Amino acid sequence: MSDLTYNLSRQQAADMLGVSTRSIDRYVKGWKLSYKKVANKVLLAKEEVDEMQEDYDLLHQHPVTETVVIKSKLDGSASNKVTRVNAGLGLWSVKEFADILGQKDVILEEKNQMIYALQRKIGEIETKMQQMIALPDYSAEKENLTLEMQKLTMEKKDLQDGIRKEKLMNTIFLGLALVSVIFVLFFMR
User: Fold this and answer.
1) In 3D, which of 52, 54, 36 has the Cα closest to residue 44?
2) In whole angstroms, how far apart are CA 33 and each of 21, 27, 140?
3) Is 10 exposed, middle or buried (0-12, 13-18, 19+ CB in 10 A)?
4) CB-CB neighbours of 68 under 10 Å
5) How many angstroms separate the CA atoms of 83 and 64, rounded?
6) pLDDT at 80 (0 to 100)
7) Nearest-CA neighbor of 27 among 8, 40, 1?
8) Please, what is the Cα angle at 55 between 54 and 58, to 5 degrees?
9) 6-59 architecture in CATH?
């Protein structure tokens, strides 16, 4: 694109497009407009600004409306009016827009029903999977815990028996020691 004519300042381009110079700077940074710098002055290509101007005009074009009277098929009266809009994209009637919106609503409703059906199906599958997965064998685990509890109960009983024997031995030893002390005291007198 070396045949571009760089002769517009930022302000001139902004005035042509009806935007601020900051917008022009954003266009330059976004590579939407090319530029040349001459003596610390930014110059923009007139051809690119003109092209952008045409695009802006198309986008900001005011719609042209016309009212079309459609006679009713039933009684022949002219009571139905349809406004047609020309937005640079061809003539569209309000009825055509309404039809398109209606079709969109039908499609969205079908999609929503499909999503709902799929979510319900997923829920059913999850429920089946939970039921299908083999649960851990709790009876074997319960049996192991019961055996362990029996072992612990036996150990507890053995410890209690050991403590009773210790207490009995200590009582007997204490009794013998007391008898020994009494015997020694009795004979030493």
Assistant:
1) 36
2) 13, 6, 78
3) buried
4) 13
5) 10
6) 45
7) 8
8) 85
9) Orthogonal Bundle (1.10)
- Give the angle 178-183-187 at the CA atoms, nearest 5°: 150
DSSP 77-126: ---EEEEEEESSS-EEEHHHHHHHHHHHHHHHHHHHHHHHHHHHHHHHHH
**What's the CA gap between 5 and 8, in Å, rounded?**
9
In three-state secondary structure terms, 160 is helix
Segments making up each domain of the chain, as ranges: 6-59, 64-93
Q: Is 48 in contact with 8 (CB distance < 8 Å)?
A: no
Global confidence as pTM: 0.33
Digit-coded pLDDT (tens) for 22-55: 989 988 888 888 888 888 888 998 898 888 888 7
- Are the C-beta atoms of 91 and 64 separated by less than 8 Å? no
